[in-house]
Amino acid sequence: MKKPIRIYLSGVALILFAVAIFVKLVSIQTNPKFIEVGNQIGTQSSTKEKEFLPVRGLIYDRWGNLLAGNSEVYEIGVELNQVSDKNRGDLITFLSSVTGKSRTEIEERVNIEYNNDPEKGKPAVYSVVMQNASQEIIDEIDRAQQDNTTLDAITWTSSLKRTYPEKSLGVNFLGYYADAGYFGVEGYYNNVLASAPSMSIITYNPYETLDLAEIPQGAGIILTIDREIQARMEEIMDRAIANNGAVSGTAIIMDPETGEILAMTTTPRGDPNMPAGQFFSEYPIVNENGTDIGTPLNRAIMQTYEPGSVFKVFTMAAALDSGTVTPDTEFLDTGYIEVGGLPVRNWDYGAWGLQNMTGCMQHSLNVCMAWLAKEMGANNFYSYLQAFNLDRKTNVDMEGEAIYPLLSPNNPTPFGSGENAPRWVEANMGAQSFGQAIAVTPIRMITSVAALANDGRMMAPHILKATVQDGRIRYYTPKILATPVKPETAHTLTEMLAVSLEGESSTALVEGYRLAGKTGTAEIPTQFGYTSDLTNASFVGWGPADDPKFIVYIWLEKPTSDIWSSIVVAPVFSEIVENLVILMDIPPDTIRMQMANQ
Question: In 303-397, which ranges are E strands?
Protein backbone atom coordinates (compact mmCIF):
# COMPACT_ATOMS: atom_id res chain seq x y z
CA MET A 1 0.00 0.00 0.00
CA LYS A 2 2.93 2.39 0.68
CA LYS A 3 4.05 2.41 -2.93
CA PRO A 4 0.70 3.64 -4.34
CA ILE A 5 0.58 6.35 -1.64
CA ARG A 6 4.08 7.56 -2.57
CA ILE A 7 3.09 7.64 -6.21
CA TYR A 8 -0.07 9.54 -5.37
CA LEU A 9 1.80 12.09 -3.24
CA SER A 10 4.43 12.57 -5.94
CA GLY A 11 1.69 13.21 -8.49
CA VAL A 12 0.02 15.76 -6.24
CA ALA A 13 3.37 17.54 -5.73
CA LEU A 14 3.98 17.71 -9.44
CA ILE A 15 0.49 19.10 -10.00
CA LEU A 16 0.96 21.72 -7.30
CA PHE A 17 4.35 22.66 -8.77
CA ALA A 18 2.82 23.05 -12.23
CA VAL A 19 0.00 25.17 -10.80
CA ALA A 20 2.55 27.39 -9.03
CA ILE A 21 4.45 27.86 -12.28
CA PHE A 22 1.23 28.67 -14.12
CA VAL A 23 0.21 31.21 -11.47
CA LYS A 24 3.64 32.84 -11.62
CA LEU A 25 3.49 33.06 -15.42
CA VAL A 26 0.05 34.65 -15.25
CA SER A 27 1.36 37.09 -12.64
CA ILE A 28 4.32 38.06 -14.79
CA GLN A 29 2.21 38.44 -17.92
CA THR A 30 -0.34 40.65 -16.20
CA ASN A 31 2.03 42.75 -14.09
CA PRO A 32 2.50 46.17 -15.83
CA LYS A 33 6.07 46.46 -14.66
CA PHE A 34 7.05 43.06 -16.04
CA ILE A 35 5.21 43.83 -19.29
CA GLU A 36 7.26 47.04 -19.76
CA VAL A 37 10.58 45.29 -19.05
CA GLY A 38 9.67 42.44 -21.40
CA ASN A 39 8.80 44.80 -24.20
CA GLN A 40 12.09 46.62 -23.79
CA ILE A 41 14.11 43.39 -23.79
CA GLY A 42 12.20 42.03 -26.75
CA THR A 43 12.72 45.17 -28.75
CA GLN A 44 16.40 45.37 -27.92
CA SER A 45 17.01 41.79 -28.93
CA SER A 46 15.14 41.94 -32.22
CA THR A 47 15.83 45.47 -33.46
CA LYS A 48 18.66 47.97 -33.65
CA GLU A 49 18.86 51.69 -34.23
CA LYS A 50 21.07 52.52 -37.23
CA GLU A 51 22.41 55.82 -38.51
CA PHE A 52 22.19 56.45 -42.25
CA LEU A 53 24.73 58.97 -43.52
CA PRO A 54 23.57 61.42 -46.21
CA VAL A 55 24.58 61.12 -49.85
CA ARG A 56 26.51 64.28 -50.72
CA GLY A 57 25.06 66.32 -53.55
CA LEU A 58 26.76 66.33 -56.95
CA ILE A 59 28.41 69.38 -58.53
CA TYR A 60 28.03 70.12 -62.26
CA ASP A 61 29.22 72.81 -64.63
CA ARG A 62 26.66 74.98 -66.45
CA TRP A 63 26.24 72.34 -69.20
CA GLY A 64 25.79 69.33 -66.91
CA ASN A 65 29.36 68.04 -66.90
CA LEU A 66 30.09 66.30 -63.60
CA LEU A 67 32.79 68.05 -61.58
CA ALA A 68 32.32 66.38 -58.18
CA GLY A 69 30.51 63.10 -57.51
CA ASN A 70 30.47 60.03 -55.30
CA SER A 71 31.77 56.53 -55.92
CA GLU A 72 31.32 53.34 -53.89
CA VAL A 73 34.44 52.20 -52.06
CA TYR A 74 35.05 49.55 -49.41
CA GLU A 75 36.75 49.15 -46.07
CA ILE A 76 38.45 45.76 -45.79
CA GLY A 77 39.01 44.29 -42.34
CA VAL A 78 39.54 41.11 -40.35
CA GLU A 79 37.23 39.64 -37.66
CA LEU A 80 39.87 38.93 -35.01
CA ASN A 81 37.88 36.16 -33.28
CA GLN A 82 38.10 34.15 -36.49
CA VAL A 83 41.91 34.38 -36.73
CA SER A 84 43.83 31.34 -35.51
CA ASP A 85 47.23 29.75 -35.95
CA LYS A 86 45.70 27.56 -38.68
CA ASN A 87 44.59 30.38 -40.98
CA ARG A 88 46.86 33.27 -39.93
CA GLY A 89 49.51 32.60 -42.55
CA ASP A 90 46.98 32.26 -45.39
CA LEU A 91 45.26 35.49 -44.36
CA ILE A 92 48.49 37.48 -44.28
CA THR A 93 49.74 36.13 -47.62
CA PHE A 94 46.44 36.67 -49.41
CA LEU A 95 45.74 40.16 -48.00
CA SER A 96 49.24 41.33 -48.84
CA SER A 97 48.77 40.13 -52.41
CA VAL A 98 45.29 41.53 -52.99
CA THR A 99 45.83 44.93 -51.34
CA GLY A 100 49.39 45.55 -52.49
CA LYS A 101 50.48 46.29 -48.92
CA SER A 102 53.67 44.85 -47.45
CA ARG A 103 53.55 41.58 -45.52
CA THR A 104 54.86 43.38 -42.43
CA GLU A 105 52.02 45.94 -42.56
CA ILE A 106 49.41 43.19 -42.92
CA GLU A 107 50.93 41.18 -40.07
CA GLU A 108 50.56 44.18 -37.74
CA ARG A 109 46.85 44.35 -38.51
CA VAL A 110 46.09 40.61 -38.40
CA ASN A 111 48.14 39.78 -35.29
CA ILE A 112 46.17 42.09 -32.99
CA GLU A 113 44.92 39.99 -30.07
CA TYR A 114 41.16 39.51 -29.94
CA ASN A 115 39.56 41.11 -26.87
CA ASN A 116 35.86 41.73 -26.27
CA ASP A 117 36.16 42.43 -22.54
CA PRO A 118 36.60 46.16 -21.75
CA GLU A 119 37.96 45.26 -18.31
CA LYS A 120 40.97 43.60 -19.96
CA GLY A 121 42.01 46.74 -21.79
CA LYS A 122 40.94 48.40 -25.01
CA PRO A 123 38.48 46.13 -26.86
CA ALA A 124 39.76 44.71 -30.17
CA VAL A 125 37.34 42.63 -32.17
CA TYR A 126 37.91 44.01 -35.67
CA SER A 127 41.02 45.27 -37.45
CA VAL A 128 40.98 47.57 -40.50
CA VAL A 129 43.36 46.42 -43.23
CA MET A 130 42.54 48.78 -46.11
CA GLN A 131 40.24 51.72 -46.82
CA ASN A 132 38.84 53.00 -50.10
CA ALA A 133 39.28 49.63 -51.79
CA SER A 134 37.82 49.22 -55.26
CA GLN A 135 35.07 46.88 -56.40
CA GLU A 136 37.66 44.82 -58.27
CA ILE A 137 39.51 44.02 -55.03
CA ILE A 138 36.27 43.02 -53.32
CA ASP A 139 35.34 40.73 -56.22
CA GLU A 140 38.76 39.06 -55.96
CA ILE A 141 38.30 38.48 -52.21
CA ASP A 142 34.81 37.10 -52.76
CA ARG A 143 36.03 34.58 -55.35
CA ALA A 144 38.89 33.49 -53.10
CA GLN A 145 36.59 32.93 -50.11
CA GLN A 146 34.36 30.65 -52.17
CA ASP A 147 37.35 28.36 -52.79
CA ASN A 148 39.14 28.73 -49.45
CA THR A 149 37.26 28.83 -46.12
CA THR A 150 40.43 29.86 -44.26
CA LEU A 151 39.83 33.34 -45.64
CA ASP A 152 36.36 33.75 -44.10
CA ALA A 153 37.76 36.07 -41.42
CA ILE A 154 38.09 38.78 -44.09
CA THR A 155 35.09 41.11 -44.24
CA TRP A 156 34.22 44.40 -45.90
CA THR A 157 31.73 47.26 -45.71
CA SER A 158 30.82 49.75 -48.40
CA SER A 159 30.66 53.56 -48.23
CA LEU A 160 30.62 56.52 -50.59
CA LYS A 161 33.78 58.46 -51.33
CA ARG A 162 33.88 61.98 -52.81
CA THR A 163 35.45 61.80 -56.24
CA TYR A 164 36.48 64.40 -58.80
CA PRO A 165 36.41 62.86 -62.29
CA GLU A 166 38.27 65.82 -63.83
CA LYS A 167 41.07 65.46 -61.24
CA SER A 168 42.83 68.83 -60.78
CA LEU A 169 40.53 70.71 -63.18
CA GLY A 170 38.83 73.49 -61.25
CA VAL A 171 40.12 72.32 -57.86
CA ASN A 172 40.79 75.93 -56.85
CA PHE A 173 37.11 76.88 -56.91
CA LEU A 174 35.72 73.40 -56.14
CA GLY A 175 37.61 72.94 -52.87
CA TYR A 176 38.06 69.63 -51.04
CA TYR A 177 35.94 67.15 -49.11
CA ALA A 178 37.11 65.14 -46.09
CA ASP A 179 34.18 64.42 -43.74
CA ALA A 180 33.16 68.02 -44.47
CA GLY A 181 33.74 70.56 -47.21
CA TYR A 182 36.84 72.75 -47.14
CA PHE A 183 37.64 75.77 -49.32
CA GLY A 184 35.79 76.86 -52.44
CA VAL A 185 32.33 75.59 -53.29
CA GLU A 186 32.64 72.45 -51.14
CA GLY A 187 33.24 74.62 -48.07
CA TYR A 188 30.82 77.47 -48.80
CA TYR A 189 27.90 75.21 -49.74
CA ASN A 190 28.72 72.37 -47.32
CA ASN A 191 25.30 72.55 -45.62
CA VAL A 192 23.54 72.52 -48.98
CA LEU A 193 25.48 69.59 -50.41
CA ALA A 194 25.15 67.52 -47.22
CA SER A 195 21.88 67.05 -45.33
CA ALA A 196 21.75 65.76 -41.73
CA PRO A 197 22.14 62.00 -41.01
CA SER A 198 18.92 60.08 -40.31
CA MET A 199 18.25 57.37 -37.72
CA SER A 200 16.10 54.31 -38.39
CA ILE A 201 15.14 51.08 -36.61
CA ILE A 202 16.17 47.86 -38.35
CA THR A 203 14.96 44.38 -37.31
CA TYR A 204 16.81 41.08 -37.04
CA ASN A 205 13.55 39.11 -37.40
CA PRO A 206 13.23 37.90 -41.01
CA TYR A 207 9.45 37.64 -40.64
CA GLU A 208 9.08 41.22 -39.49
CA THR A 209 9.42 44.31 -41.68
CA LEU A 210 9.83 47.93 -40.68
CA ASP A 211 9.57 51.05 -42.75
CA LEU A 212 13.13 52.29 -43.22
CA ALA A 213 13.82 55.98 -43.43
CA GLU A 214 15.00 57.15 -46.82
CA ILE A 215 18.73 57.78 -46.99
CA PRO A 216 19.10 61.58 -46.90
CA GLN A 217 20.22 63.20 -50.15
CA GLY A 218 22.06 66.52 -50.34
CA ALA A 219 21.14 69.07 -52.98
CA GLY A 220 22.94 69.04 -56.31
CA ILE A 221 24.66 72.21 -57.43
CA ILE A 222 24.99 73.61 -60.96
CA LEU A 223 27.84 76.09 -61.32
CA THR A 224 28.21 79.02 -63.69
CA ILE A 225 31.54 77.50 -64.78
CA ASP A 226 31.95 76.40 -68.40
CA ARG A 227 34.07 73.26 -68.34
CA GLU A 228 35.52 73.81 -71.83
CA ILE A 229 36.48 77.42 -71.11
CA GLN A 230 37.97 76.34 -67.77
CA ALA A 231 40.09 73.60 -69.34
CA ARG A 232 41.35 75.85 -72.12
CA MET A 233 42.21 78.67 -69.73
CA GLU A 234 44.13 76.33 -67.40
CA GLU A 235 46.13 75.05 -70.36
CA ILE A 236 46.98 78.59 -71.50
CA MET A 237 47.89 79.78 -68.01
CA ASP A 238 50.10 76.75 -67.30
CA ARG A 239 52.02 77.43 -70.50
CA ALA A 240 52.30 81.16 -69.70
CA ILE A 241 53.73 80.41 -66.25
CA ALA A 242 56.30 78.02 -67.69
CA ASN A 243 57.29 80.31 -70.58
CA ASN A 244 57.70 83.34 -68.35
CA GLY A 245 59.25 81.68 -65.31
CA ALA A 246 56.49 83.01 -63.02
CA VAL A 247 55.95 81.84 -59.45
CA SER A 248 52.21 81.48 -60.03
CA GLY A 249 49.43 82.47 -62.36
CA THR A 250 45.83 83.46 -61.69
CA ALA A 251 43.03 84.19 -64.14
CA ILE A 252 39.27 84.82 -63.93
CA ILE A 253 36.69 85.09 -66.69
CA MET A 254 33.35 86.66 -65.81
CA ASP A 255 30.16 87.74 -67.54
CA PRO A 256 29.97 91.45 -66.62
CA GLU A 257 26.21 91.59 -67.26
CA THR A 258 25.35 88.91 -64.67
CA GLY A 259 28.42 88.46 -62.45
CA GLU A 260 28.62 84.79 -63.46
CA ILE A 261 32.12 83.33 -63.15
CA LEU A 262 32.77 81.36 -66.34
CA ALA A 263 36.26 80.17 -65.36
CA MET A 264 38.72 80.65 -62.53
CA THR A 265 42.17 79.16 -62.14
CA THR A 266 45.32 79.62 -60.15
CA THR A 267 48.42 77.60 -59.40
CA PRO A 268 49.45 75.29 -57.99
CA ARG A 269 46.57 72.87 -58.50
CA GLY A 270 46.51 69.62 -56.52
CA ASP A 271 44.40 66.56 -57.27
CA PRO A 272 41.42 66.60 -54.86
CA ASN A 273 41.22 62.80 -55.12
CA MET A 274 44.42 62.52 -53.05
CA PRO A 275 44.19 61.50 -49.35
CA ALA A 276 43.25 64.24 -46.90
CA GLY A 277 46.59 64.20 -45.12
CA GLN A 278 48.50 64.74 -48.34
CA PHE A 279 46.11 67.44 -49.58
CA PHE A 280 46.18 69.48 -46.39
CA SER A 281 49.95 69.23 -46.16
CA GLU A 282 50.04 71.10 -49.48
CA TYR A 283 47.22 73.49 -48.62
CA PRO A 284 47.18 73.86 -44.81
CA ILE A 285 44.26 75.74 -43.29
CA VAL A 286 45.99 77.00 -40.14
CA ASN A 287 49.14 76.24 -38.23
CA GLU A 288 49.38 75.31 -34.57
CA ASN A 289 48.98 78.98 -33.60
CA GLY A 290 45.80 79.34 -35.62
CA THR A 291 47.24 81.64 -38.29
CA ASP A 292 47.07 81.14 -42.03
CA ILE A 293 50.15 79.58 -43.58
CA GLY A 294 51.28 78.00 -46.80
CA THR A 295 49.98 78.48 -50.32
CA PRO A 296 46.30 79.42 -50.56
CA LEU A 297 44.25 76.92 -52.54
CA ASN A 298 42.68 79.75 -54.53
CA ARG A 299 44.78 82.90 -54.93
CA ALA A 300 41.94 84.44 -56.95
CA ILE A 301 39.93 85.00 -53.78
CA MET A 302 42.30 84.11 -50.92
CA GLN A 303 45.36 86.30 -51.61
CA THR A 304 45.71 90.06 -51.84
CA TYR A 305 48.43 91.86 -53.77
CA GLU A 306 49.28 95.34 -55.06
CA PRO A 307 47.86 95.34 -58.61
CA GLY A 308 49.68 98.33 -60.08
CA SER A 309 48.50 100.18 -63.17
CA VAL A 310 45.33 98.14 -63.80
CA PHE A 311 44.06 100.16 -60.83
CA LYS A 312 44.32 103.36 -62.91
CA VAL A 313 40.94 102.62 -64.48
CA PHE A 314 39.32 103.56 -61.14
CA THR A 315 41.24 106.82 -60.85
CA MET A 316 40.34 107.83 -64.39
CA ALA A 317 36.71 106.72 -63.96
CA ALA A 318 36.44 108.85 -60.82
CA ALA A 319 37.96 111.88 -62.55
CA LEU A 320 35.62 111.56 -65.55
CA ASP A 321 32.49 110.85 -63.51
CA SER A 322 33.14 113.73 -61.09
CA GLY A 323 33.61 116.15 -63.98
CA THR A 324 37.22 116.84 -63.01
CA VAL A 325 38.36 116.10 -66.58
CA THR A 326 37.09 115.00 -69.98
CA PRO A 327 38.91 112.71 -72.41
CA ASP A 328 40.27 115.80 -74.18
CA THR A 329 41.59 117.54 -71.06
CA GLU A 330 45.28 118.26 -71.53
CA PHE A 331 48.02 117.58 -69.03
CA LEU A 332 51.66 118.63 -69.32
CA ASP A 333 53.69 115.71 -68.03
CA THR A 334 57.05 116.81 -66.67
CA GLY A 335 57.81 113.35 -65.26
CA TYR A 336 57.50 114.54 -61.68
CA ILE A 337 54.86 115.58 -59.13
CA GLU A 338 54.70 115.76 -55.36
CA VAL A 339 51.78 114.41 -53.31
CA GLY A 340 51.92 114.92 -49.57
CA GLY A 341 55.56 115.93 -49.81
CA LEU A 342 56.68 112.72 -51.56
CA PRO A 343 57.70 112.52 -55.23
CA VAL A 344 55.82 110.53 -57.87
CA ARG A 345 57.54 109.59 -61.12
CA ASN A 346 56.53 107.64 -64.21
CA TRP A 347 57.36 103.99 -64.71
CA ASP A 348 60.22 104.89 -67.10
CA TYR A 349 61.28 107.99 -65.13
CA GLY A 350 60.59 109.98 -68.31
CA ALA A 351 58.57 113.08 -69.14
CA TRP A 352 55.91 112.60 -71.82
CA GLY A 353 55.02 116.21 -72.44
CA LEU A 354 51.55 117.38 -73.42
CA GLN A 355 48.98 114.58 -73.21
CA ASN A 356 45.21 114.26 -73.17
CA MET A 357 43.53 111.79 -70.81
CA THR A 358 43.53 109.00 -73.39
CA GLY A 359 47.27 109.51 -73.79
CA CYS A 360 47.68 109.31 -70.02
CA MET A 361 46.00 105.89 -70.04
CA GLN A 362 47.75 104.69 -73.19
CA HIS A 363 51.18 105.52 -71.80
CA SER A 364 50.16 104.55 -68.24
CA LEU A 365 51.52 107.75 -66.68
CA ASN A 366 51.80 107.63 -62.89
CA VAL A 367 52.32 111.39 -62.69
CA CYS A 368 49.05 112.04 -64.53
CA MET A 369 47.11 109.73 -62.18
CA ALA A 370 48.57 111.41 -59.09
CA TRP A 371 47.65 114.79 -60.57
CA LEU A 372 44.06 113.59 -61.10
CA ALA A 373 43.82 112.46 -57.48
CA LYS A 374 45.07 115.86 -56.29
CA GLU A 375 42.65 117.68 -58.59
CA MET A 376 39.71 115.65 -57.27
CA GLY A 377 40.75 116.03 -53.65
CA ALA A 378 41.05 113.28 -51.06
CA ASN A 379 37.36 113.21 -50.10
CA ASN A 380 36.20 112.92 -53.70
CA PHE A 381 38.88 110.41 -54.70
CA TYR A 382 38.22 108.05 -51.80
CA SER A 383 34.45 108.34 -52.09
CA TYR A 384 34.80 106.80 -55.56
CA LEU A 385 37.12 104.04 -54.33
CA GLN A 386 34.45 103.21 -51.76
CA ALA A 387 31.74 103.41 -54.43
CA PHE A 388 33.66 100.69 -56.30
CA ASN A 389 33.58 98.67 -53.03
CA LEU A 390 37.37 98.52 -52.95
CA ASP A 391 37.28 98.68 -49.16
CA ARG A 392 35.22 95.51 -48.67
CA LYS A 393 34.85 91.88 -49.70
CA THR A 394 32.87 90.85 -52.78
CA ASN A 395 31.13 88.10 -50.72
CA VAL A 396 31.60 85.72 -53.63
CA ASP A 397 30.12 82.30 -52.84
CA MET A 398 33.39 80.47 -52.19
CA GLU A 399 35.02 79.87 -48.83
CA GLY A 400 38.07 81.81 -47.72
CA GLU A 401 37.80 85.25 -49.35
CA ALA A 402 40.53 87.58 -48.08
CA ILE A 403 40.58 91.35 -47.68
CA TYR A 404 43.27 93.91 -46.87
CA PRO A 405 42.15 97.12 -45.16
CA LEU A 406 42.10 100.24 -47.32
CA LEU A 407 44.20 103.06 -45.91
CA SER A 408 42.14 106.22 -46.40
CA PRO A 409 41.12 109.42 -44.59
CA ASN A 410 38.03 107.51 -43.40
CA ASN A 411 40.16 104.59 -42.16
CA PRO A 412 43.50 106.15 -41.21
CA THR A 413 44.70 103.42 -38.78
CA PRO A 414 43.15 100.10 -39.86
CA PHE A 415 45.96 98.03 -38.35
CA GLY A 416 45.65 99.28 -34.78
CA SER A 417 47.09 102.20 -32.91
CA GLY A 418 50.61 100.89 -32.24
CA GLU A 419 53.60 103.15 -32.77
CA ASN A 420 54.67 101.28 -35.91
CA ALA A 421 51.17 100.68 -37.27
CA PRO A 422 50.65 102.01 -40.85
CA ARG A 423 48.68 105.23 -40.95
CA TRP A 424 47.12 107.10 -43.81
CA VAL A 425 48.91 110.21 -44.95
CA GLU A 426 48.31 112.34 -48.03
CA ALA A 427 51.29 110.72 -49.75
CA ASN A 428 49.35 107.43 -49.80
CA MET A 429 46.88 109.00 -52.21
CA GLY A 430 49.60 109.54 -54.80
CA ALA A 431 50.71 105.89 -54.72
CA GLN A 432 47.15 104.55 -54.56
CA SER A 433 46.14 106.51 -57.64
CA PHE A 434 48.27 104.14 -59.74
CA GLY A 435 47.71 100.91 -57.78
CA GLN A 436 50.47 100.83 -55.16
CA ALA A 437 50.01 101.12 -51.37
CA ILE A 438 46.73 99.27 -51.80
CA ALA A 439 46.14 95.50 -51.77
CA VAL A 440 43.22 93.65 -53.31
CA THR A 441 42.29 90.17 -54.47
CA PRO A 442 41.82 89.36 -58.17
CA ILE A 443 38.10 88.69 -57.52
CA ARG A 444 37.79 92.16 -56.00
CA MET A 445 39.48 93.73 -59.00
CA ILE A 446 37.46 91.98 -61.70
CA THR A 447 34.18 92.59 -59.86
CA SER A 448 34.80 96.32 -59.56
CA VAL A 449 36.24 96.80 -63.06
CA ALA A 450 33.29 94.85 -64.52
CA ALA A 451 31.07 97.83 -63.65
CA LEU A 452 32.87 99.75 -66.42
CA ALA A 453 31.95 96.98 -68.89
CA ASN A 454 28.31 96.93 -67.74
CA ASP A 455 27.01 100.49 -68.05
CA GLY A 456 28.34 101.42 -64.61
CA ARG A 457 26.49 98.62 -62.79
CA MET A 458 28.55 96.38 -60.51
CA MET A 459 27.08 92.87 -60.30
CA ALA A 460 27.56 90.44 -57.42
CA PRO A 461 30.11 87.82 -58.49
CA HIS A 462 28.78 84.28 -58.10
CA ILE A 463 29.65 80.73 -59.06
CA LEU A 464 26.26 79.17 -58.25
CA LYS A 465 23.86 78.98 -61.18
CA ALA A 466 21.20 76.73 -59.62
CA THR A 467 20.48 74.09 -56.98
CA VAL A 468 18.68 70.84 -57.70
CA GLN A 469 16.69 69.07 -54.99
CA ASP A 470 13.58 66.90 -54.93
CA GLY A 471 13.24 67.26 -58.68
CA ARG A 472 13.14 71.06 -58.52
CA ILE A 473 15.65 73.52 -59.93
CA ARG A 474 16.09 76.85 -58.19
CA TYR A 475 18.06 79.42 -60.18
CA TYR A 476 20.26 82.14 -58.73
CA THR A 477 19.03 85.65 -59.47
CA PRO A 478 21.80 88.11 -60.46
CA LYS A 479 22.13 91.06 -58.07
CA ILE A 480 23.35 94.62 -58.57
CA LEU A 481 25.78 95.59 -55.81
CA ALA A 482 26.33 99.22 -56.70
CA THR A 483 26.40 101.79 -59.48
CA PRO A 484 29.72 103.56 -58.87
CA VAL A 485 29.68 105.63 -62.08
CA LYS A 486 27.18 106.82 -64.67
CA PRO A 487 26.64 104.76 -67.86
CA GLU A 488 28.16 107.58 -69.91
CA THR A 489 31.36 107.40 -67.85
CA ALA A 490 31.61 103.65 -68.33
CA HIS A 491 31.15 103.99 -72.10
CA THR A 492 33.66 106.84 -72.34
CA LEU A 493 36.36 105.00 -70.41
CA THR A 494 35.78 101.80 -72.39
CA GLU A 495 36.30 103.77 -75.60
CA MET A 496 39.46 105.40 -74.22
CA LEU A 497 40.92 102.01 -73.27
CA ALA A 498 40.03 100.53 -76.67
CA VAL A 499 41.76 103.44 -78.40
CA SER A 500 44.76 103.01 -76.09
CA LEU A 501 45.21 99.34 -77.06
CA GLU A 502 44.86 100.16 -80.74
CA GLY A 503 47.17 103.17 -80.52
CA GLU A 504 50.07 101.20 -79.08
CA SER A 505 49.40 98.14 -81.32
CA SER A 506 49.15 96.07 -78.18
CA THR A 507 49.81 92.34 -78.24
CA ALA A 508 46.50 92.07 -76.37
CA LEU A 509 44.55 92.76 -79.58
CA VAL A 510 42.52 90.06 -81.33
CA GLU A 511 41.81 90.35 -85.05
CA GLY A 512 38.16 91.03 -85.81
CA TYR A 513 37.25 92.10 -82.27
CA ARG A 514 37.52 95.53 -80.66
CA LEU A 515 38.61 95.17 -77.04
CA ALA A 516 39.18 97.47 -74.07
CA GLY A 517 41.97 96.75 -71.62
CA LYS A 518 44.68 97.95 -69.29
CA THR A 519 48.06 96.56 -68.30
CA GLY A 520 49.50 96.68 -64.81
CA THR A 521 53.12 96.27 -63.67
CA ALA A 522 53.60 96.61 -59.91
CA GLU A 523 56.76 96.55 -57.88
CA ILE A 524 56.47 94.23 -54.89
CA PRO A 525 56.60 95.68 -51.35
CA THR A 526 59.07 94.13 -48.90
CA GLN A 527 60.34 95.10 -45.46
CA PHE A 528 63.19 96.88 -47.23
CA GLY A 529 60.96 98.83 -49.64
CA TYR A 530 59.76 98.10 -53.17
CA THR A 531 61.57 95.70 -55.48
CA SER A 532 62.47 96.71 -59.02
CA ASP A 533 63.70 93.42 -60.45
CA LEU A 534 60.58 91.42 -59.49
CA THR A 535 57.04 92.51 -60.30
CA ASN A 536 53.43 91.48 -60.33
CA ALA A 537 52.21 91.63 -63.92
CA SER A 538 48.47 92.01 -64.45
CA PHE A 539 45.98 92.70 -67.22
CA VAL A 540 42.25 93.39 -67.27
CA GLY A 541 40.27 93.52 -70.48
CA TRP A 542 36.75 93.11 -71.81
CA GLY A 543 34.90 92.85 -75.08
CA PRO A 544 33.48 93.24 -77.56
CA ALA A 545 33.95 96.91 -76.66
CA ASP A 546 30.52 98.01 -77.93
CA ASP A 547 28.64 95.19 -76.12
CA PRO A 548 30.87 93.38 -73.59
CA LYS A 549 30.06 89.69 -73.04
CA PHE A 550 33.17 88.80 -71.06
CA ILE A 551 35.80 90.35 -68.86
CA VAL A 552 39.16 88.69 -68.17
CA TYR A 553 41.58 89.36 -65.30
CA ILE A 554 45.11 87.89 -65.33
CA TRP A 555 47.90 88.02 -62.75
CA LEU A 556 51.36 86.51 -63.23
CA GLU A 557 53.40 86.59 -60.03
CA LYS A 558 57.10 87.48 -60.32
CA PRO A 559 57.74 86.61 -63.98
CA THR A 560 61.44 86.30 -64.81
CA SER A 561 61.27 86.50 -68.62
CA ASP A 562 60.43 90.21 -68.41
CA ILE A 563 59.04 92.55 -65.74
CA TRP A 564 56.55 94.40 -67.95
CA SER A 565 52.91 93.35 -68.20
CA SER A 566 52.65 94.62 -71.78
CA ILE A 567 55.22 92.00 -72.79
CA VAL A 568 54.35 89.18 -70.38
CA VAL A 569 50.58 89.22 -69.84
CA ALA A 570 49.04 91.09 -72.79
CA PRO A 571 49.67 88.19 -75.23
CA VAL A 572 48.17 85.76 -72.70
CA PHE A 573 44.99 87.84 -72.68
CA SER A 574 44.93 87.77 -76.47
CA GLU A 575 45.25 83.96 -76.57
CA ILE A 576 42.49 83.51 -73.98
CA VAL A 577 40.14 85.81 -75.93
CA GLU A 578 40.90 84.05 -79.22
CA ASN A 579 39.63 80.84 -77.64
CA LEU A 580 36.85 82.54 -75.71
CA VAL A 581 35.08 84.07 -78.70
CA ILE A 582 34.96 80.63 -80.33
CA LEU A 583 33.73 78.79 -77.23
CA MET A 584 31.16 81.52 -76.49
CA ASP A 585 30.14 81.69 -80.16
CA ILE A 586 30.71 85.46 -80.44
CA PRO A 587 30.93 86.50 -84.12
CA PRO A 588 33.52 89.09 -85.26
CA ASP A 589 32.40 92.72 -85.01
CA THR A 590 31.65 93.15 -88.72
CA ILE A 591 29.38 90.11 -88.79
CA ARG A 592 27.60 91.22 -85.62
CA MET A 593 26.99 94.65 -87.15
CA GLN A 594 25.59 93.08 -90.31
CA MET A 595 23.31 90.85 -88.27
CA ALA A 596 22.14 93.84 -86.24
CA ASN A 597 21.36 95.87 -89.37
CA GLN A 598 19.37 93.00 -90.84
Answer: 330-333, 337-339, 342-344, 353-356
